[in-house]
Amino acid sequence: MLIAIASFAVIALLAFAISFVAFLVQTSRHRSSGKWAAAAGTSLVVVLLLGGLANALQGEGTPSRSQGQASAPNVAGQSDHDTTATVTRVVDGDTIDISPPVEVRSRVRLIGMDTPEVYFGTQPYGPEASDFAKRELDGERVGLELDVQKMDPYGRLLAYVYLPDGRMFNEVLLEEGYAQVATFPPNVKYQERFLEAQREARAANRGLWGLSAGELCKHTDRGNGIGGGCSGSESQSVTGSASAGSGADSNLDCASFAYQEDAQRVLKQDPRDPNYLDGDDGVACEELPSTNDESPGVRSGEDGDLDCASFATQEEAQRVLKQDRSDPNYLDRDGDGAACEDLP
């Protein structure tokens, strides 16, 4: 039908062209041109009618662009993703199951980071990372962005996972301290961005970065200065070095210590503060007396012009800094609140 209409339209267009040329010629010779003008007008009307009819018939069989767009799901903030899927199960902090499958795979491993294990030997902070992922992802419709390598050796899809609000969950895990950076080329698209998120979490002792050395050594070595196994010295009991009262067990409180410095050492060894020694500011048991409230344990013979060489331990220098936060002796060189960090 469309072919026949198109053929008639071509014929009518030719008739219009011939009639119009003849009209112009007759007019230029000052002869009667009314018939040619009528023929040209009739031909033009026929062309327009046939064209409109052809467009109407074609529109019935082909959905318009706006109709096609209206039928597609509109997911806010996910227009740049390769695809979307629903999280049907959170396996652990960095692994999820999705539906429908993508690239014939329903299990997804998040790219660029690694959360502590909860299977085949639970690592410190693994359950916390897994629980966080379940709270954020379970049942959610997420965006998936793929990189150069789409599958890992275990047959899992590799992806950057985006939350409904547009945040990349891989990066969120690093920002909140639930994961450490783990880069495996060629999937390095967001490596620098991930490293920056890790630096910020580490500086704030957030999440796993607040664990003790004895716990961090149990993590997988991903080239971030932690993990790979414990030598033994890292696993020393946190409470073993505290000057707690005789017979005190691992459930410590400020009453377990004679001096504030003793409580501070326990807090420093485990900044997570499971014993609630620090109320809010990084200083443990501030109500306890200091071992020397008037002067630090400065080496004998030194005058009032102090520097880090004037102290035997970092704790001694720290007490001086605490007494005068203006730091006139320049004991805190990098401004992080810790004096003479190179001292034992």
Describe this structure in words.
With 344 residues, this protein is α+β, with helices and mostly antiparallel strands. The protein folds into four domains: 2-62; 83-210, Beta Barrel (OB fold (Dihydrolipoamide Acetyltransferase, E2P)); 237-286, no CATH class; 292-344, no CATH class. It has nine helices and seven strands, in the order H-H-H-E-E-E-E-H-E-E-H-E-H-H-H-H. It has helices at 2-28, 34-61, 65-71, 126-137, 169-175, 191-203, 213-216, 260-269, 314-323; strands at residues 83-92, 95-102, 105-110, 113-114, 141-145, 157-162, 180-181. The strands form two sheets. The protein has a five-stranded mixed beta barrel. Strands 4-7 form a two-stranded antiparallel ribbon. A hairpin with a 2-residue loop joins strand 1 and strand 2 (95-102). The longest helix is centred in the N-terminal third of the chain and has 28 residues, at 34-61. The chain is elongated, with a radius of gyration of 38 Å. The termini are far apart. 27% of the residues are buried. The model is unreliable at 62-78, 235-251 and 294-304 (pLDDT under 50).
